[in-house]
Design a protein that fits this description.
The complex is a heterodimer of chains A (303) and B (390). Chain A folds into two domains: 42 residues, no CATH class; 242 residues, Orthogonal Bundle (MetI-like fold). Helices cover 76% and strands 2% of the residues of chain A. Chain A has twelve helices and two strands; from the N terminus they run H-E-E-H-H-H-H-H-H-H-H-H-H-H. Chain A has a two-stranded antiparallel sheet. Chain A is globular. In chain B, strands 2-1-5-4-3 form a five-stranded mixed beta sheet, with no helix packed on it. In chain B, helix 3 crosses helix 7 and helix 3 crosses helix 10. Chain B is globular, with a radius of gyration of 34 Å. Classes of the chains: A mainly alpha (303), B mainly alpha (390).
Chain lengths: 303, 390
């Protein structure tokens, strides 16, 4: 009798286990994940002044967004940043990975650590360091450029609208090129060496082997890294925010979409408009992801 | 016979040319990697020097400051004027040009001359015997006791010393006294460790359920998790803020911890790793009478331990560096984490606070860097596992 009772209790815990295991996450997720997503959709159609006043305004927010020059500035800046992340940083990261993958390289782990090191800092801290390094005339960057290339030392990297975006691109290159090359390196190391040897025997040069053996083999990883970089670039906030000391830079040259969302939602206090910006950002990111997915399928189909 | 000999010689020539080529390529490889490494490390190296420079010296010296004495300005007295001094000079204040007039203090008992200290008063003997200070660079002014710009008086002669640029711990002192940075570090540690533990427990338990059980709603959960990976986290800022205000969780750590615990990424990572654990192992434990929680704790977690290490490091770094949500939620300075304190108080406390800012940045970067150093292998394996396999 007691045994039977014990057995049924044991069966019960076995049956209930998965629900109990996933319940804590699911409850939190419903409250702080799912509900906010729906709530932000609701907010997007309202105008708010702080968290406690709410007026329904229909599509006004979206209509305003489409004519909002600041939003277009933010969209343009973020897109330029994303463009350089993908078309400048990723090729360099791939090149770096190819160098690190050389068979006779000694100290690969050390080099890999060195290139990864800037990424350990996190964007916030890089922002603080950047403020000092990119000071005009006496900052490390100006001193270096003046000494090596005779560049005008008085260029105000962070206070001249022409130079804010290049500076951001350069800093993110420094931060993320090693990080991305780790993905490429891992992919390169899993490429079958026999394929290379076979191609070599067939008379393929290094360039041919790169295009026809390496690239197809690591294509899935390239696509994932491109996707992650794009999504990451569109989230850009902490680096420019701290680099520009909480402002959007000269003539809003450092304004990004998330920064604009923050300003509208938390400096002005219009959570409704912030949600509209948030959903627009979400749609942009989803659209880009879809396009890249379609592209990758097509590429894979042809390959 | 002749042909084969020819062949051989050609092959040998070919091989040496190839070896030569390889040597050049190898040199080129190392040169480019070392150059790139230089650019990667230069800003970090500069920061490691900057933390020892006073805010005033931040831009005057590219690396560490080294000059103990630049200039002496005699403000009153016969030698009135500024004198440029470099290390090793014997600077003289005295009565005539012919003497090697050393201003030197001779103690009454005839012992050795003392070094200059702030506040010392030196007398010049009215009888004409030159007395005073021997100022020869580093030697005359040990430690950083006398700072640039400070004035000492030699009898009726007031002397102003300019220079004294040496490495200093002043930034750290200021950081911990003026800005109460120790509190911020403790806050960050507490918040980050709690957030990492919560993430680890929730993600691994949930991942276990998704990997090794069949239950109603499993597919729905998986689809929703995958779908929300596409949602940018900034979309949740406004509604979560509103929610926290209504729940009275603003300006509290719960307001950061609860919304921060719902990342789907970790759960999918754990699910992926746990799929690889053989079912037989679990079944065997079950037959032995092990409870489900026991299976999770004694069988599954030890197997996925390397993954857990990588996950903890990633969660630690994400939480340690997190900025936007803490900035919105935290309002009182005593709750500020390191990034928030640096951003909201230290970096805007005046234009000339670069010293403490750099020192704080350095201390803020140290914990994740050290953890990474310990767990490097696991971390890179975990980082690339999803991408390469998927």
């Amino acid at each position: 009798m007691a045994n039977e009772k014990q057995y049924s209790a044991w069966r019960a815990q076995q049956r209930m286990a998965p629900y109990l295991f996933i319940a804590p996450f699911c409850i939190l997720f419903c409250v702080f994940g799912l509900y906010p997503i729906l709530k932000s959709l609701y907010l997007a159609f309202h105008t708010t002044n702080g968290p406690r006043s709410l007026v329904f305004t229909g599509f006004d927010n979206f209509r305003f967004l489409l004519q909002d020059p600041d939003f277009y500035t933010a969209l343009w800046n973020t897109s330029v940043f994303a463009f350089f992340s993908i078309f400048l940083q990723l090729p360099l990261a791939l090149g770096l990975a190819l160098l690190l993958n050389s068979t006779w390289l000694k100290g690969r782990t050390l080099f890999r650590f060195v290139f990864f090191a800037p990424n350990l800092m996190g964007q916030v801290f890089v922002g603080f360091l950047g403020v000092v390094i990119f000071s005009p005339r006496y900052g490390l960057f100006s001193r270096f450029l003046t000494a090596v290339a005779g560049v005008n030392p008085d260029i105000k990297w962070l206070l001249d609208e022409r130079f804010v975006m290049p500076t951001l691109v350069l800093i993110s290159l420094w931060m993320y090129v090693g990080y991305n090359s780790i993905y490429f390196l891992a992919a390169l190391q899993s490429v079958d060496k026999e394929l290379h040897e076979a191609a070599s025997v067939d008379g393929a040069g290094p360039w041919d082997r790169f295009w026809h053996v390496t690239v197809p083999a690591i294509k899935p990883v390239i696509l994932i890294v491109v996707l992650m970089s794009t999504i990451g670039s569109f989230q850009l906030f902490e680096l420019p925010f701290n680099l520009l000391k909480g402002t959007s830079g000269p003539n809003k040259a450092g304004l990004t979409i998330v920064m604009y969302l923050y300003q509208r939602g938390f400096e002005v206090g219009n959570l409704g408009y912030a949600s509209t910006i948030g959903w627009t950002l979400a749609l942009i990111v989803m659209f880009i992801s879809l396009v890249q997915k379609k592209l990758s399928e097509r590429v894979r189909g042809h390959g | 016979m002749v042909e084969s000999a020819n062949n051989q010689s050609i092959r040998i020539v070919g091989r040496t040319a190839g070896a030569d080529n390889a040597k050049w390529l190898r040199a080129l490889l190392y040169i480019s990697l070392l150059t790139a490494s230089f650019f990667m490390l230069a800003p970090l190296g500069w920061m490691c020097c900057a933390i020892f420079k006073s805010s005033a010296d931040m831009f005057t010296y590219t690396l560490l400051p080294y000059e103990t004495l630049e200039k002496i300005e005699v403000q009153e007295g016969p030698e009135k004027g500024a004198w440029k001094v470099i290390q090793g000079d014997v600077f003289s204040i005295g009565t005539g040009e012919s003497d090697t007039i050393r201003v030197e203090k001779l103690p009454a008992n005839g012992g050795p001359a003392r070094f200059v200290r702030k506040g010392d008063v030196w007398e010049i003997d009215p009888a004409g015997t030159p007395k005073g200070v021997l100022v020869n660079g580093r030697y005359a002014m040990p430690d950083a006791k006398l700072r640039g710009g400070e004035i000492i008086r030699v009898g009726t002669t007031k002397i102003r010393f300019d220079g004294m640029h040496v490495p200093t711990l002043q930034n750290f002192r200021e950081l911990f006294t003026k800005f109460n940075f120790g509190r911020n570090l403790l806050n960050s540690f507490f918040l980050t460790c709690t957030a990492t533990s919560i993430s680890l427990i929730l993600s691994s338990l949930g991942g276990f359920a998704l990997a090794k059980y069949e239950f109603a709603g499993k597919r729905v959960v998986l689809v929703i998790l995958l779908a929300t990976m596409m949602i940018p986290p900034s979309l949740l800022l406004a509604p979560n803020y509103e929610l926290l205000v209504h729940m009275n969780l603003m300006n509290s750590y719960l307001g950061i911890l609860l919304p921060g615990a719902v990342g789907a990424f970790g759960m999918l990572l754990f699910r992926q790793a746990m799929l690889g654990v053989p079912d037989d192992l679990i079944e065997a434990a079950r037959i032995d009478g092990c409870s489900e929680l026991g299976i999770y704790w004694k069988i599954i977690m030890p197997v996925v331990r390397p993954m857990s290490g990588a996950f903890c490091l990633m969660a630690f770094m994400a939480s340690w560096n997190s900025f936007l949500m803490p900035m919105i939620v935290l309002q009182s300075e005593s709750l500020f984490t390191v990034p928030i304190a640096l951003s909201q108080t230290i970096s805007i406390s005046g234009d000339n606070q670069y010293g403490p800012l750099m020192a704080g940045t350095f201390l803020g970067v140290l914990p994740p860097a050290m953890l990474f150093f310990l767990l490097q292998k696991e971390f890179i394996a975990g980082l690339t596992a999803g991408a390469v396999k998927g």
